[in-house]
Amino acid sequence: MATKPGVVRCRPGRMAQYLGALLQSRPEVREPFELGFAAMNISSWDQAIGYFKQAIVATNGPGLVALNNLVGVCHYTQGRLDEALKDFQESARLAEQYDDRQGGSRALGNIGRIFHDNGELDRALTLMEQALALSDDSNDPWATAIHLGYAGSVHHDRGELDRALQYYEASLTMSRDIGDQWGVATQLANIGNVYHDRSEFDKALEYHREALAMARQTGDQWCLASNLGSIGNICRDKGDLDEALKYDNEALALAREIGHQLGVAADLGNIGLILADRSEHEQAVPKLAEALTILLATGVADGPRQTLTGLAGCEDKLGRKRLTELLKQAGRDEEAITDVFDRIDQLRMRRPD
């Protein structure tokens, strides 16, 4: 029998954007950059990438550091992590070439974030520490606050909750000092996740609701979607499945709207797990299957296990034949279905009944 899966968590916080001197660049560079940045602000990621690439062709100077970073942010948001990694690595290489420490700091931090997503925690932490050293050296408190939060997330996933809390609180203090409302909301959410993992659900809700209110006030849809999902996770762990489903459905709609694929996958996975908890296994299967498809495509380390455990639980209740029928109805072909069952079988071999 499958064990009960945990939640699928989507970490709050965006990648570290960098504009450098683009606002003062020549018109043939600045104009496509401004159009691309405007497209980012309305979540038109492919359009933004197209404009940024126009600007890349038009320049051969330090502005390339920022432009490659921005293309990476777009690719990351779309769940195209391999492409994002190449973009950030190119940004880091150019930053070293042009002695751009602020640009280098943000590129290294973003590279670390991707290694974190891929489960390479030690390598991620090394990159975060390098990014922190550069942001401190270049007097870039905005980036320092982001990197502190990133490092806290790595310690969090290593199970070092006290250490994670120290980093989150340091980032929160710095974000407040520089008036970065987005950073404040992000770290409140991170702190809430620590208390969630400590099973201090009421305290976790306090932090997430404060972050949620701030996200609504500032119009930060990314942070808003993340906190809605986090509150849904807490409600599920408290046994309030109807309330959890309400929050996760709202989070899913918002994640789809802004095109954040990892957020979409997390919310779909959590909705599927809630439906399974409610014994609505036939309704759970397509949600879990869609979540798994996205998670496997992005290559992230966290998430596939939870969704596979949920699907294994559905198989326990429905049988393999019915699960196969539901996966077909959800648009999965024979090869994809075979892969799902292979993964479920591997999961069962690693877990006691």
Automatic annotation (TrEMBL):
Residues 107-257 form the MalT-like TPR region domain. Keywords: TPR repeat. TPR repeats lie at residues 105-138, 185-218. This is Tetratricopeptide repeat protein.
